[in-house]
Amino acid sequence: MRITQLTKTVCLSGFLLFGATTFAAPSWEYFTKTFPITGDDQAMTNALNTLGKDQWELVDCSQSRSRLVCIFKRTLQEE
User: Which of 15, 42, 62, 72 has its Cβ near the most Cβ atoms within 10 Å?
Assistant: First the structure.
């Protein structure tokens, strides 16, 4: 998949010309983590901050019984 970014250029006659700059969309890696729902917000905040420092971005969460299942993503690092 390719994403196109449009840029505007004004020429002397006053018309707008659109140029296209094409770049490759990033590849993602995903990570799923299950947190127990204990009512301890600080523990979850600390865990989320730790994941954020490793460039994980929270995408979605869903509740299942007394657990919170969270999905994270980050840009795939080329080796």
Answer: 72
